[in-house]
Amino acid sequence: MGTLRQMEYLLAVVEEESFTRAAHRLSVSQATLSHQLKALEETVGQPLVERLPGRVLPTQMGREYLPHAITALRSAAAARRAVMTGHDGEPVSLRLAVLPSLASGVLPGAIRAWRDAHPDAEVSMLEFLDGDRLPREMLRGVADLAVGPVPDGWPGEVYPLYREELVVVLPADDVCADATGTPLDLALLADRDWVLHSESNPLASLVLRACARAGFTPRAAVSTHHPAAAVRLAAAGLGPALVPRASVSDDVAVTWRVPRPEVGCDLAAYTRGPAAPHVMAFVRALGGTELGR
Questions:
Q1: Which UniProt keywords apply (predicted)?
Q2: Tens digits of per-residue pLDDT, 153-203?
Q3: From the centroid of its chain, how far is CA 206?
């Protein structure tokens, strides 16, 4: 049948359609990944993947084998969670899946508060830069709780959190800097080149909608996936950027203003099924409300 590690490697290769990306995702060398997958194929007796130009796809046997591998991996994960308990039965680990661009502001304080109540606990955080990948990975069971925008039609439980407001970031000496902090009409920036977000980042669509409401489509000077990078690029004078307020650190010489019209994103924590007590404790630390979907 193969080992659980070999099954994990196979699943990563199939999902990433690449040995290189799968090795990076698993933090192993490509040689190790290839060796383990070859060993699994020898155990099964047939090739499980085929290398095509630019991608790797499962063979017919690979497609038949994958559901069994996924079931085995999920069962093993459930078994680990069942035995990883303290003397009072409280789980000692919490796995979070997050979009760092939209959840960085609330997470550090919530993790600290949760660990104050669970001093022996370990928190592992998986950060997904691709907004579409987060719900897919959650459905696979990679984490106990996700924090980010709730995907349409989510089948599990949803715990509303708060609205992440976006701000306009400009160089400190920009003509649109305003010490009074009054909202900035985005139409004043219509003729500028902008620092935009990569398409896979959920912030990208928010920025485009905000600019459209102000009557223009922003021209890109440069695009990046990381809000912190967008802040520094804006500070360098490459163009205004719209980012979560939590992304603007004190060590970068910029000015920021609330845009008019205001723009933001409703954030929530969500799970595949009813949240376990230790997960609900973290939801409360986030400030969420115990609501169903």
A1: DNA-binding, Transcription, Transcription regulation
A2: 999 999 998 888 899 999 989 999 886 778 999 999 999 999 999 987 888
A3: 16
Residue 241 in tokens: 């950027």
Q: Which structural domains are found in the chain, ordered by start?
A: 4-83 (1.10.10.10), 93-162+270-286 (3.40.190.10), 164-265 (3.40.190.290)
Closest listed residue to residue 118, CA positions, set 287, 237, 284: 284
Tell me how far apart the alpha carbons of residues 196 and 222 are, in angstroms, rounded to a whole number. Answer: 6
Q: How far apart are CA 30 and CA 22, in angstroms?
A: 8
Give the H or E element holding residue 105: none
Distance set, CA 74 to CA 13, 122, 143, 266 (Å): 17, 20, 11, 30
- Separate counts of helices (H) and strands (E) for the chain: 10, 13
| Interatomic CA distance for residues 220 and 194, integer angstroms | 5
pTM > 0.85: yes or no: no
SS3 label, residue 224: strand
Please give the span between the terminal C-alpha atoms of the chain, in angstroms, as a whole number.
38
Residue 27: φ, ψ to 5°? 60, 45
